[in-house]
Design a protein that fits this description.
Blueprint lengths: L14 E6 L7 E5 L9 H4 L9 E6 L7 E8 L4 E6 L5 H6 L4 E20 H6 L1 H14 L8 E2 L7 E2 L4 E3 L2 H6 L5 H5 L22 H21 L3 E4 L8 E5 L2 E9 L11 H7 L5 E7 L2 E4 L5 E4 L2 E5 L25
Parallel strand pairs: 1-3, 12-13
Antiparallel strand pairs: 1-9, 2-6, 3-4, 4-6, 5-6, 7-8, 10-11, 11-12, 13-16, 14-15
C-alpha cells in the first residue's frame, strides 16, 4: 500500500521519530527496503519521505533508564540506496542467526543534540488524553494511515509504536513540551521544489555534488596517508584509469581510491581500472566507507569521517569479479 503523505502540503509538519536501541544515535536513519517477507513496510519506507532540514526525534528504549525521547537530529541531503545487515527481532529471526546484507535506505543526519530533560514514557503517559485528542483531530482532517508515534489501548498502557520510524505531528510537540525545537532547530530549509513528496533514490548516488564530495573525501584521506609515509603524491584521476600516482625514490605505485557513505562490501570497477591493476606497476586499493555528508544552507555539499581499508599491490581476483554491465555490438540487419 502506498504511503499516505498527509503532511506534504504543510511545511510545519517537519517532525519524525526514530524508535531504536542503537548506540550511535544521530548518525543516520537506516532500514531495509522490505520486511522479512520481502514486502514494503511503512515503518521502513517512511525514511524516504524525510526532507533536508526535517527534525528527527530519537526514542531510545533504555539509554535514559526507561523508554523515552532523549535527543533530536536534523536530516541533511537525500536518502540513498545501500545495504544493511539486519536480523528480525522475533524468535524465528533470532534463531536463524542470519545477518546477511539486504538492500536498505540510508538518510544522513547531523547536529545530534541530547535533550537536557528527556521526555520519558512516564511523562508521555501523563499526557495520554491530550495525545488521543491530537490523533482524533488528525483523523478528522486526514483520511488514511497517519503513522502516529504512540499506540493506545484500553487493555494496556500507552507505548511507542512497535516499529522503527514514525511521523511525529507538530501538535504533539506542544503536548510534550518540545515546541521549543522550532526555535532551536531553525527554520525549514527544504528547497521549494522538494518540499513535498518522496525524494528520488538511486542505486548509486544520483546527486553529482554528493558523489563528488564523497569521492574527494576519500581521495584527500588517501593523499594524506601516502604523504605521511613519505611519498610524493600526484592526482591523476582526470586523465588515467587510477586516482593517484605516488613515488618514493624507486618505489612507484598507482592508487585506486573508492569512497562510500554506506558500508562497502563491494565496489564498482571499470574495465580500465581492472586492466590497470594488472600492469607491471603495482596498484594499491584504498577504500573509505561510512563517510558522512551534509548539505550547507547555500546548497554546497561537505563530507567528513570515514573508515579506511587498504590493500597494497592489489589485483582483483577473477572469482571476485561479477559482471554487472555488458557492451553488445548489434548484428547487421534487423527489421526497420
Amino acid at each position: 500500500m502506498a504511503i499516505n503523505d498527509w503532511w506534504a502540503a504543510d511545511p510545519a509538519e517537519r517532525y519524525w521519530m526514530e524508535i531504536t536501541d542503537r548506540d550511535d544515535l544521530g548518525a543516520d536513519l537506516i532500514a531495509p527496503t522490505a520486511d522479512g517477507s520481502g514486502k514494503p513496510y511503512w515503518g521502513y519506507e517512511l525514511i524516504t519521505y524525510v526532507q533536508p532540514g526535517d527534525i528527527v526525534l530519537h526514542w531510545h528504549k533504555s539509554l535514559a533508564g526507561e523508554p523515552g525521547i532523549i535527543g533530536w537530529s536534523q536530516a541533511t541531503g537525500s536518502y540513498e540506496d545501500t545495504d544493511i545487515s539486519w536480523q528480525a527481532r522475533g524468535t524465528v529471526g533470532r534463531a536463524t542467526g542470519s545477518l546477511a546484507p539486504r538492500p536498505a535506505w540510508r538518510m544522513p543526519l547531523v547536529n545530534y543534540t541530547p535533550l537536557a530533560n528527556p521526555v520519558l514514557i512516564s511523562e508521555v503517559r501523563a499526557h495520554e488524553t491530550d495525545l488521543r485528542e491530537e490523533l482524533e483531530e488528525l483523523e478528522g482532517r486526514h483520511q488514511g494511515a497517519l503513522y502516529f508515534p504512540f499506540q493506545f489501548s484500553d487493555k494496556r498502557e500507552l507505548r511507542a509504536q512497535q516499529t522503527y520510524f514514525v511521523k511525529f505531528p507538530r501538535g504533539a510537540l506542544e503536548h510534550l513540551g518540545l515546541d521549543d525545537l522550532e526555535d532551536i532547530a531553525g527554520p525549514d530549509v527544504r528547497p521549494a521544489e522538494s518540499a513535498a513528496g518522496k525524494r528520488g533514490g538511486s542505486g548509486y548516488i544520483a546527486d553529482s555534488a554528493v558523489r563528488s564530495a564523497i569521492e574527494w573525501r576519500a581521495i584527500n584521506l588517501a593523499t594524506q596517508a601516502y604523504t605521511d609515509l613519505g611519498y610524493n603524491v600526484e592526482y591523476t584521476g582526470s586523465r588515467e584509469p587510477y586516482d593517484l600516482l605516488v613515488t618514493d625514490g624507486s618505489d612507484v605505485r598507482r592508487v585506486e581510491v573508492k569512497g562510500s557513505s554506506g558500508a562497502a562490501d563491494t565496489i564498482e570497477l571499470t574495465r580500465g581500472e581492472v586492466d590497470n591493476s594488472r600492469q607491471a606497476t603495482p596498484t594499491d586499493l584504498y577504500v573509505v566507507d561510512g563517510i558522512r555528508w551534509w548539505r550547507e544552507a547555500d546548497g554546497t555539499v561537505k563530507a567528513d569521517g570515514g573508515e579506511v581499508r587498504w590493500w597494497t599491490s592489489w589485483t582483483p581476483e577473477e572469482e571476485r569479479l561479477v559482471a554487472t554491465r555488458f557492451r553488445y555490438t548489434l548484428p547487421p540487419g534487423g527489421e526497420a
